[in-house]
């Protein structure tokens, strides 16, 4: 069993992407005070998405720069900087919950494929914050969402050559493409298709099976207002070919013509 936690405190990549500083106890204290001062109201807007499925990064019109050119007094700059850090924490909190909801929805949409092409989804959980200064009224703004999943014992697709006989490489890569297309046919676009998110498990009699993991960055057909917008956002097998080629798998693990001749 695997516990996947959507934790803003240690989400280093998300913090980098959002231009937030590494988490510290001081930042957490300011975040809690920020929530109290704002009455635990909507401390940050959700990341907006338009009908075409495109994010609107500047929806709230806030400039998060620490050095705005139009600031005239140092006092105003310090006040703004003190406000930015807790606002980032609020944004990250909302982001973690949005990613959690997306992943849970993807698993539910693929319920009949759990244990076959994706891990089994066991439960959604909430992990209480261990912050020593937490107040009861702030629970929903600081607790962390998580999911319990089946553990898939295997190796990353990128390590194919080190773990599987050469004669199985073609079949394994074809299975990876099949799983990717399965999501598309169910109205799910996984924008995080990477070799590290494709796990190969050795089955009985020496066979191998590919499982896809990590669906937090999925988009759904209902988010696109037309079939054309949906199709152009999804590259089907070309996406997997590109990933495999970039990691050297197509070139070294199997004939590239074998993939190019495949139908989706």
Automatic annotation (TrEMBL):
Organism: Aspergillus cristatus
Record InterPro entries: Kinase-like_dom_sf (IPR011009)
Upper classification of the organism: Eukaryota, Fungi, Dikarya, Ascomycota, Pezizomycotina
Acidic residues bias: start-end ranges: 39-74
Annotated segments matching region Disordered: 34-84
Protein name: Protein kinase domain-containing protein
SUPFAM superfamilies: Protein kinase-like (PK-like)
């Amino acid at each position: 069993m695997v516990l996947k936690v959507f934790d803003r405190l240690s989400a280093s990549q998300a913090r980098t992407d959002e231009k937030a500083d590494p988490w510290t106890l001081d930042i957490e204290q300011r975040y809690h005070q920020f929530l109290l001062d704002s009455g635990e109201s909507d401390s940050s807007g959700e990341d907006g998405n338009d009908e075409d499925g495109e994010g609107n990064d500047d929806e709230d019109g806030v400039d998060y720069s620490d050095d705005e050119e139009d600031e005239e007094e140092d006092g105003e700059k310090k006040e703004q900087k003190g406000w930015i850090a807790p606002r980032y924490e609020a944004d990250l909190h909302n982001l973690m919950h949005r990613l959690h909801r997306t992943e849970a929805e993807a698993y539910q949409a693929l319920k009949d494929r759990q244990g076959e092409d994706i891990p089994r989804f066991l439960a959604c959980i909430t992990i209480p914050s261990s912050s020593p200064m937490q107040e009861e009224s702030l629970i929903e703004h600081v607790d962390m969402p998580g999911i319990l999943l089946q553990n898939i014992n295997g190796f990353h697709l990128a390590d194919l050559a080190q773990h599987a006989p050469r004669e199985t490489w073609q079949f394994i890569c074809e299975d990876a493409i099949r799983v990717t297309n399965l999501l598309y046919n169910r109205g799910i676009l996984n924008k995080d298709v990477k070799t590290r998110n494709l796990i190969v498990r050795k089955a009985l009699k020496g066979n191998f099976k590919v499982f896809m993991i990590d669906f937090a960055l999925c988009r759904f057909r209902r988010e696109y207002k037309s079939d054309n917008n949906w199709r152009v956002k999804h590259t089907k097998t070309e996406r997997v070919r590109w990933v495999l080629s970039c990691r050297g798998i197509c070139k070294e693990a199997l004939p590239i013509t074998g993939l190019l001749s495949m139908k989706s």
